[in-house]
Recover the amino acids of this structure.
């Protein structure tokens, strides 16, 4: 249950299985450290399910890593290796995010660094 002042009346946490169906009609959908757990086929399935649930004016917000170029950002590269070995997923470059989102019916609007290992990726349905 959400209890923060001013949020409880505007947001809902809804249980479910994002491989099956995503609740429809929200203003925004937030995926925090979700997609890096999955290989591309499963990540695409999640993204397409979110897209199917969205209104045309809704926003998808992803909090996850964006891998930088070679020889930069060694912590993110280490996390990429950990995800591959432990969960079968991986961290993605901005180009890989753009392609995944495009395949799922989205346009990547922005990808901004929020912490040393996390970015906020905003996408809009097309």
């Amino acid at each position: 249950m959400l209890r923060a002042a001013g949020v409880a009346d505007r947001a809902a946490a809804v249980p479910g299985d994002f491989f099956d169906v995503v609740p429809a009609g929200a203003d925004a959908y937030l995926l925090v450290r979700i997609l890096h757990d999955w290989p591309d086929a499963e990540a695409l399935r999640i993204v397409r399910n979110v897209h199917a649930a969205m209104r045309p004016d809704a926003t998808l917000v992803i909090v996850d890593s964006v891998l930088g170029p070679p020889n930069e950002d060694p912590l993110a590269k280490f996390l990429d290796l950990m995800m591959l070995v432990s969960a079968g997923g991986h961290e993605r470059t901005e180009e890989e995010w753009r392609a995944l989102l495009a395949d799922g019916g989205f346009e990547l609007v922005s990808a901004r660094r929020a912490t040393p290992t996390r970015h906020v990726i905003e996408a809009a349905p097309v």
